[in-house]
Design goal:
Layout: H1 2-24, H2 33-62, E1 66-70, H3 80-87, H4 90-98, H5 104-108, H6 120-134, E2 139-144, E3 152-156, E4 159-163, E5 176-187, E6 190-194, E7 197-201, E8 204-216, E9 223-233, H7 239-243, H8 247-250, H9 252-260, H10 271-300, H11 306-309, E10 310-315, H12 322-333, H13 338-348, E11 349-352, E12 363-365, H14 366-372, H15 374-393, H16 398-404, E13 407-408, E14 414-416, H17 417-423, E15 427-430, H18 433-441, H19 445-450, E16 455-457, H20 464-470, H21 473-483, H22 486-489, H23 504-529, E17 538-543, H24 552-568, E18 577-582, H25 590-607, E19 616-621, H26 626-632, E20 638-641, H27 653-659, E21 663-666, H28 672-679, E22 685-686, H29 691-699, H30 704-709, H31 712-722, H32 735-743, H33 749-768, H34 770-783, H35 789-801
Parallel strand pairs: 1-2, 1-10, 2-9, 10-11, 11-15, 15-16, 17-18, 17-20, 18-19, 20-21, 21-22
Antiparallel strand pairs: 3-4, 5-8, 6-7, 8-9, 12-14, 13-14
Helix pairs in contact: 1-2, 1-4, 3-20, 6-35, 10-12, 12-13, 12-15, 14-15, 21-23, 23-34, 24-25, 24-31, 31-32
Amino acid sequence: MPSRTNAKIEQLEAKILDVLRHRVGKDERAAKTHDWFTAAVLSLRDEIIDKWMESTRRTYDAGGKRVYYLSLEFLIGRLLRDAISNLGLGREMEQALRTYGLELSALEDLEPDAALGNGGLGRLAACFMESLASLDIPAYGYGIRYVNGMFRQRIDDGWQVELPETWLAHGNPWEFERRESCYRIGYGGEVIAKGDGVEWHPAEAVEATAVDTPVVGWRGKRVNTLRLWTASALDPIKLDAFNAGDHIGALAEQMRADSLVRVLYPADSSAAGQELRLRQEYFFTSASIQDIIRRHVQYHGDVRTLPDKAAIQLNDTHPAVAVAEIMRLLVDHYALEFDEALDITRRTVGYTNHTLLPEALESWPLPLFERLLPRHMQIIYAINSRVLREARKIGMDDGEIAAISLIDEGGDRRVRMANLAFAGAHSVNGVAGLHTDLMKTTVFSSLHKLYPGKINNKTNGVTPRRWLQQCNPALTSTLRDAIGDAFLDDAEQLSALNALAGDAALGERIAEVKRSNKVALAAHLKDLTGVRLNPDALFDVQVKRIHEYKRQLLNLVETVALYDQIRSHPERDWVPRVKIFGGKAASSYHNAKLIIKLANDIARRVNSDPSVGGLLKVVFVPNYNVSLAERIIPAADLSEQISTAGMEASGTGNMKFALNGALTIGTLDGANVEIKDRVGDENIIIFGLTADEVAEKRANGYNPREVIEGSYELHQAVEAISSGVFSPDDKNRYKGLMDGLYESDWFLLAADFDSYAAAQREVDRRWNDQKGWRKSAMHNIANVGWFSSDRTIAEYAKDIWKV
């Protein structure tokens, strides 16, 4: 083994130097760190390419079934460490780089986070891609190659400022353009009868070109493909207009094409924004479906065998137009009868639902949809007629039929994309047990009655390679010493740690790792925000997309109440706390952006108040992304998962934190329910209303004013925020936000406040028993291996994709 290792180090040394000279074009004496970074990536990439080609050949030779995962987001993060770890080359790469006076960690920090996602949906897609390769399942991921992503978040005077994410400014050494995989995407125009069929004649079109990134599985078992689409105009410049002086008009078509791949989730508060979102979704979906069917026909001949060779999974409703696009191609291009085409489509497509929020179930104004996609509108009407006839045949009433319809006829008519996905798929899955149960009784109750076998559950998971082994190497090493290496290949083998949870010495070693991670995070946050943090304090963390249902506001109001209590009762033995917040608010989401400002206003007041000393600090981490998550999660003591019960589909941050030894404080929502079942009631802190109680309270009348005025701590905190205590420059800044709690409190912040505050004092009690806390942390690590994306993907493969 040592001789093979040494040979590999020497091979890498020579390879890196050769690449630096001949592909980067730099002499080692003149090379800068970014040159060495590129050389390291390209050297590693060569090894990956060999495995990539071998994986592709194996799939072709076997003639097996492929999985195609369509997602508007892929939050892949940095790839260098991921690839090195999965290839098992960490030690060798470190030694090879040290020959040239370089540290691998320093080069890893030079890699920008790919701006291809926003939150849990995109990170889940990235975990799934890694697990598909790790389980040796042939797969393509399909999405958009965003030039600027969602946005880079800067905090100016406490306010979120959105800036373009320039991750591609210096190129991307991981990707490969595939000029041969180029498809025309049409919009508008008219549908004309021709013979026995019809032809769609779009009024405008753009070209989609594939850009591929290899996705390396654990131990290099397989390398799959993440295929992202970039757009270009068919006529990028009108030279006659340019030479006539109309420089902007001459480039108008290319600018329209560029807009499709420029920004993730362009604000849809305007008609133009809505149209761009729909164009964007159809652009990537159509290119992906054309690519899938082209590949199938090329290698298997008969388009009728598509369900036998391809499993297409729709990650939420963004690619739901795939149902109509597959139908269009089968009927218009391959001359299949409509009902046969619908059967093929349904047997090929699966749909994952990620939300119960009605406003998050995408729908489009019917006039907009019909103007942009006239042929698809015809197909959707035809599918709808069949679905509604089925419903009428089994005796469903008018209300149920209205709920099932792919067209919402109430008010302004809209095309319901979730209903389209449901009607056009053979499988519709939720992402946690509670979420799946609620799908059957809430948003899809009528569709579930019509198609009782479609809905199934696939509880989410996270890849333990990135979210334990890579982001927390010291903990991984400690666990290997304690229970061996089996958990590296099967995360459920972490359960062996249960038998050692009472081992005080092991508990102390794990606690030392945690403190070391906290020291490192504190230093990083000092550089980022200027706030000095005590690593011996309890690190209480809520990092995720900012949304009212996720209830960062509940956390902030309780923080204000705690601040008041510490000042009012200095004689008590308070647990020192560091409150860490992070996350982005959608550009047009006013209340979410106001919550970010409130977090920063509270931080400014609390952190400068000598009366609380080192007992409470508050910090908002700007531009939360995968790389920051990899620093924050291993350092967290307490994981805040406090959404209104029944509103979070699953969550995956809850799994990552528990895997790294944080205790969860949370409601019985999403995957928290299953985490509680796995780790045990004594190793999690649960509070608040259940999903049934939330529904009952909303249905039977709820008076938040009465609740607020009946809770001394809550009332004091709400009034302090409302009256401008934390916003002396604008005393009315938060009045509207707090008035919303008095008037409606849809997310039941007030209803859960006292229970939440009591749970936080229970956290204090547990923290003061460090031996017990360490034992609970070990039980969390031991029992959440089940929440591996490997397990989730194996369930998809067996139950939905049949691969």
